[in-house]
Amino acid sequence: MARLDRLLANLGYGSRREVTDLVGRRQVVLDGAIVKDAGARIPITADLPDRLLVSGQPLDPPAPLTLLMHKPRDVVCSHREAGRSVYELLPFRWRARIPALSTIGRLDKDTSGLLLITDDGPFLHRVISPRSHVAKRYVATLARPLAGDETEIFAAGTLMLDGEKDALAPAVLEPLSAAVAQLTITEGRYHQVRRMFAAVGNHVEGLHRDRIGGLDLPADLGEGAWRVLTPAEQNAIFR
After folding, report:
1. Within 13 Å and on the Cβ side, how many CA atoms surround 101?
2. pLDDT tens, 16-62?
3. Sign of the C-alpha dihedral, residues 184, 185, 186, 191?
4. Phi/psi of residue 207, each to 5°?
5. Which residues form the catalytic set?
6. In angstroms, rounded to a whole number, what is the distance separating the alpha carbons of residues 80 and 187?
7. Which CATH number does the domain housing residue 9 bear?
8. Same domain for 15 and 42?
9. Which residue range is the domain that position 47 belongs to?
10. I want to staple 81 with a disulfide (CB 3.0 to 4.6 A). Which of 35, 76, 118, 159 is the partner?
11. What pTM, to 2 d.p., does this model score?
12. Is residue 41 a part of any domain in this protein?
């Protein structure tokens, strides 16, 4: 159960005073009936967005919420980085949600593909925890053709990145063409994929993530588009 004014305020519909005004203007409807008391206690059920209308529109999904986004290039994943952010692709009021939405890991500005955004702290930490062994798969377009020994080098578990003291965990490289390859990694070091190819004398010109764990980026989700992740899809990540 949650107080209606607190629920709507936490979802970014305005301050509690503004939500009270919204209720006073008969803009909140539950199960077809106008809500008259901003302090009414509402059960938080899975079907609440289908039952509660705010200004004629279905309620935004309450927390915990996880989104699947097809991140475009030239968009950043942090509030602190310069440039347009992934949060600007979401409804404006979602930036005021409590708890706040955060990306699960990051894709750099020049990388596109599957990105998860959530306000579910335990789920976020489960995905990024090394104990979960959640793999990430990338498609890399390279400046030069593959030399032919990269698969063995990346799988050995002995590759060292410049400036680091520990070797990388084994990774799986699958050539797709002379200068395009799929690379599956289980770590998340800074710019790891780009630095791995740099370590074998190549340069990544394009990078796209198409899988996290057992979850693939849907073919029908265009760049910049997003949707709510289903419970089944959340479970697929850990398969």
Report:
1. 29
2. 999 999 999 999 999 999 999 999 999 999 899 999 999 999 999 99
3. negative
4. -140, 135
5. 108
6. 23
7. 3.10.290.10
8. yes
9. 2-58
10. 76
11. 0.93
12. yes
